[in-house]
Amino acid sequence: MSRALLETLMDAPYVARFGVRLEVKGTELTGVLPFDNDLVGNPLIPALHGGAVGAFLEIVASGSLLLSQPMEKLPRPIDVAIDYLRPARAQDVYARAIVARSGRRVANVRAEAWQGRTDAPVATLHGHFLITPETSDTPAG
Amino acid sequence: MEDDIQSRLDSIAPLIVEGSPHAVALGFRIDKLAPGLAMMSAPYDESLVGDPDTGTLHGGVITALLDHVCGMAAFGGLGARDTPATLDLRIDYMRPARAGQDIHAEAECLKSHGLVAFVRATAHDGDRADPVAMAQAAFMITKASKAAQERALKAMRGEHPL
Prior knowledge:
The complex is a heterodimer. By secondary structure, chain A is of the alpha+beta class. In chain A, about 25% of the residues lie in helices and about 40% in strands.
C-alpha cells in the first residue's frame, strides 16, 4: 500500500473541493462522492454531470491501484472508456474498482459507480494507467 | 434548416452551460457553436489542480470539459431540439496540461441519425497541434432527456413551473 500517496491523491485541490472520500476496509476501497449541487450537469432531470462521475471513477481507480501495491508516484491515466448506464441522480455516488492486471509499467483497471443499489450501476470505467511500482532496490516510503 | 438550427443553438445552448452547475463551478465558457461543431474552454484555476507539485489541472476538469463539449456538438448535430445523454466517452490522455494554461476543447459531430450522434473532440492548452487529450463519444436522446427538455420548454412558455 502507498498510504502517503493515497493522501497526496486525496489532498489535491480538485478532489478536496468536490468532497471525494475513500473508505478503506482491509484491502477493499470504496469511494464516496457526496451529493453537492456543484456536481449537477443537467438540473432539469436532475442528473449529475457525466464528467464529474467520470472523474470520480478515475480517482477511485487510482486509489485502488495505490492500495494494491507500493508505488513511487501517483498512477497517471493513459486512457479511459466510460459507459453511462443510467442518469446519476441528485444523490451520493459510490464506486469500487478492480485491478484487472498490474504490470511493471501499466495497469488495467475496471471501476463501477452506483447510487441506490449496487446491482444498478450508473456508470462503469475501464482504463489503463501508467504506474511506477516500488522495486526492491528503492527504499520503502 | 441550418439557419433554424443555428438560431436554436444561439438561444438555447448558452443555457446548457449557464444552467449547468458543474459547468459553472468549473468556469466553462462557450467559444463557438455551429450545427455539429462546438468549442469551449476551461480557465486555469488553482482550486482545480490535481497535482500540487506540478500545478497541473486535475484530469477531471478535462474529462468534464470533453463530455460537455461533445454533448454540445451532439446537441447541434441532432438538430438542437433535445439535449442528448452521454452513452459512452473514451478519452486518451496524451500528456499533462501545463500549469497556468487554460484548456480549450473542440468537438465535431461526425454523424448523427435519428436519436444517436457520434462525436470526436480534442483538448489542448494553447497549441492545437499538441493536444492534451482526445475523446470519442456517442450520445443518445433518451426518454429522460426528452422529458427534461419538454419541461424546460413548458417553463419557458410559462405553462408549468420547473
